[in-house]
Amino acid sequence: MKHKITKIVTHLLKPIAALTNHQSNKELKERIILMYHGISKKPQFNCVTESLFIDQICWLKEKYSVVSLFDLVESIKSTEKHESNLASITFDDGYVNFAEFAVPILEKYGCHATVFVPTGKVGYFNDWDEGHNSFHKMQIMSYDQLRQLPKEFVEIGSHGISHKPLFRLPPNENFREIVNSRLEIEQKVGQPVRFFAFPFGPFEYNLNFYRNCMEFLASYHAACTGWWGRFNSLKDLYTLRRIGMWESDSCKDFIDKLEGKYDWLAVKEKIGRFYRFTPSLLRG
């Protein structure tokens, strides 16, 4: 569904969303993971503008305890009751514009981010996006640039090797994508890789695929998906849900996403996966 149509539907569903959000999840503490791709000076494909990113960070810090992905995952594992809602920031693909625009903002506002890098594309560009109507070529950081990222504000995770949808690959290729990518980053960057993010989604993968990958993911603390959701629990450690940020978002869109106005997308995704992965005979 195109982002413009998604926003129209969200606007129409706001009265229902307000009612359901008020009635449910009262006792649950949010464990939000924001998913970005790029940051740019001006609006462009797959990038949030620098000024909007600053506004989003400021709003986020007022409403949430902004923590590293590691700390958010540890809070999920903990049996202690947490009083505050937590938010963590992630970036997929490892673009040069992350180092150029996002890192100075993270440093200024004292925020941490995890950046997921596809090892087979390091120093290359986002060729998987070619053919998209709004495609904009973006350079991916080299290993020299990855090593220069400030460790106190940035953690590097794996985004596989080829940036291909893993469900289309045989098990031996999935092993390479998940395990070998981690080993390469650790060897060339010199720091442990604790997190993995599956490329593409949310309709590319079903729960059975993630379960089949568990033995490959065992060396990671947790893994992120493209599935939509504001709440993550212990059972979700290797299928963590995230809230995607789009280039067309306004600050109001950002707030709506974090206040649950877009939660209907999680239901839509489940229905979409059902029809994608369930044989037509079983669907009737």
How far apart lie the N and C ends?
Answer: 25 Å
**How many domains is the backbone divided into?**
1
Q: Helix count?
A: 11
CATH topology descriptor: TIM Barrel
| Extended strand count | 10
Major pleated sheet: 8 strands, parallel
* Mean of residue pLDDT values: 90
Structural class: alpha/beta
Coarse shape = globular
**CATH homology-level superfamily:** Glycoside hydrolase/deacetylase
Could you spell the SSE succession in H and E letters? HEEEHEHEHEHEHEHHEEHHH
Unreliable runs: 280-284
- Radius of gyration from the CA trace? 18 Å
CATH architecture, please?
Answer: Alpha-Beta Barrel
Class, according to the CATH hierarchy?
Alpha Beta
Bin the helical content: 40-55%
Describe the structure.
The chain is of the alpha/beta class and 284 residues long. It has one domain: Glycoside hydrolase/deacetylase (TIM Barrel, Alpha-Beta Barrel), CATH 3.20.20.370. The chain has helices at 3-23, 50-63, 69-77, 96-109, 143-147, 171-189, 207-212, 214-217, 251-258, 264-277, 280-283; strands at 31-36, 38-40, 47-49, 65-66, 86-92, 113-117, 154-158, 195-197, 222-228, 240-244. Strands 1, 4, 5, 6, 7, 8, 9 and 10 form an eight-stranded parallel β-sheet that branches. Helix 3 links the parallel strand 4 (65-66) and strand 5 (86-92). Helix 2 runs parallel beside helix 4 (96-109). The chain starts with a helix and ends with a helix. Residues 280-284 have low confidence and may be disordered.
